[in-house]
Specification:
single chain, mainly beta, Immunoglobulin-like, five-stranded antiparallel β-sheet, 0% helix, 52% strand
Length: 332
Amino acid sequence: MRSGLFITLVIALILPIAVSAQSLGSLGGISNEAFTLSVSPQYPSPYSQATVSVLSGSIDVTNSTITAFVGGKEIYKGSARPFSIQLGKTGSITNVKVTAVFGGALFSQTISIQPQDVVIIAEPISSAPPLYQGKSLVPIGGDVRVVAMANLKDANGRSASPTTYSYAWTVDDTRIANSSGIGKSAIIVASPLQYRSRSVSVVVTSASGNLVGGASFSLSAAQPSVRVYENDPLLGIRYDRALSGSYTISGAEATLYAAPFSLPTTGGAPFIQWFLNGSSVQIGNSITLRPTGSGKGSASLSLTASSGDLTPITTVLSLIFGATSGTNFFGL
């Protein structure tokens, strides 16, 4: 997640990586199939912690004495429970050796964990105002562009060429074959239904196949909104203050700007329509209001923002204008 807006989601919203290769061994001539080692997460990120678990269908590991070594140094001894190890920089190899003593017999396994730097960035294809410094959210009924940024290194710190990386994308446990392959670092994913989530993961492999990393995260769609701002002739659009409830027109005219947030834009910009006292009067993001007459009055201003099959989002303002009592109409 380097640019764009990150999701890390879990990612983290978002989401790093790793590659683990394992080799098996034994002591005292005992079969090395007695137990296996499992690493979680499958693709840990650099400088993170990985959890190692001892699994077996051959010996009773719950009644065994487990000893774990990292780099020849004992880091754990006791019953068979998961234990954590600290990983190093990208591409560095952490060798873990685990022995199990059961029924007087000694068993041993080793595993090598090599974290790799893979980050997923979610780029919702949804609306946001021009120059908006924040990030639009995952749109309901829209799409999200998901980008993987990977930096795979060997144990000596040498990086493989990113143009040669192969990307394997999975969405909701389904491999997306037509979006996977060499150089396919991005994928377009349909937004999940409201109140649901969608998992996206990627496995990145170097051309040689020796370096592997991965990342995953969960997408959740957000309720879109449309906000109204005053467009000041000198200061421009007042994004620092969204209008709500009522708005008083103090001058000869006032221009308001509608900003739709997180509406899907796959099929184009959201359609905005303004209504004055229930009658359609304007289409587009902006509307200019000019009170006429000499009395004081009020009116109801509303707008709808819609996109595709999404239910239109509505915002209502109560307008107050004029200085004295009376009945007036707006000139638009």
